[in-house]
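Customer escalation, tier 2.

The customer says the design service returned an amino acid string that "doesn't look like it belongs to this structure." They asked us to rerun it and document both sides in this ticket. The original structure tokens are below, unchanged.
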């Protein structure tokens, strides 16, 4: 599919935030609402920001602090306008929302993963809530380059209060969002989302 611009990315769908349940087809682990709403602006100072790598889709995600080393698939939009989530499989992997900026490019790049995958057990993002400010994240790109990110914050929020503008909104530097489910479990789903916010620290060219 054709890549959307940063501003088109947050305005191309219905502005209302529609929450997607973690349940469905045995899924207990990843959900995200529609990426709509008015773009937000980061207050970050970009004067000394690292140079971005060339635009390329992510191929692999590594988070040493929590033992994540996973291929990354591409995700689009579901029929209801919500962001797709990775399929429920024994070999669980993360997925990049391909209408968000590529990792290392200006704006928030969004990657989703499951915390659990039904009968298959633990998901690739099962320990996402253990990350802390300062932890490192490496995204290997399809062009052979890589983008290094540093965690700036980790938040657990109720699904009803999902911070759509903070996750999908316009920012003035390359950033990364990692999203999964968390918090109390209800039935075959979870009440909350765990969201990791990270900023580009270095990039290979």
């Amino acid at each position: 599919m054709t890549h959307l611009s940063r501003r088109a990315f947050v305005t191309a769908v219905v502005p209302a935030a529609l929450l997607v349940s973690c349940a469905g087809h045995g899924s207990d682990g990843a959900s995200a609402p529609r990426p709509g709403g008015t773009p937000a602006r980061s207050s970050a100072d970009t004067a000394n920001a690292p140079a971005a790598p060339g635009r390329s889709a992510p191929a692999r995600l590594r988070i040493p602090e929590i033992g994540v080393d996973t291929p990354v698939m591409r995700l689009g939009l579901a029929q209801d306008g919500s962001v797709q989530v990775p399929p429920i499989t024994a070999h669980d992997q993360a997925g990049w929302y391909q209408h968000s900026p590529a990792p290392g490019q200006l704006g928030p790049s969004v990657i989703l993963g499951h915390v659990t995958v039904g009968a298959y057990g633990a998901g690739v993002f099962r320990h996402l809530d253990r990350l802390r400010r300062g932890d490192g994240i490496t995204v290997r790109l399809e062009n052979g380059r890589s983008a290094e990110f540093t965690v700036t914050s980790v938040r657990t929020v109720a699904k009803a209060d999902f911070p759509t503008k903070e996750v999908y909104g316009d920012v003035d530097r390359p950033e990364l969002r990692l999203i999964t489910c968390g918090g109390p479990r209800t039935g075959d789903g979870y009440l909350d989302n765990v969201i990791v916010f990270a900023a580009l620290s270095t990039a290979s060219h």
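Tier 2 assessment: The sequence is consistent with the input. The longest helix spans residues 6-11. Residues 1-27, 37-47 have pLDDT under 50 and may be disordered. Sent an explanation to the customer and offered a walkthrough call.
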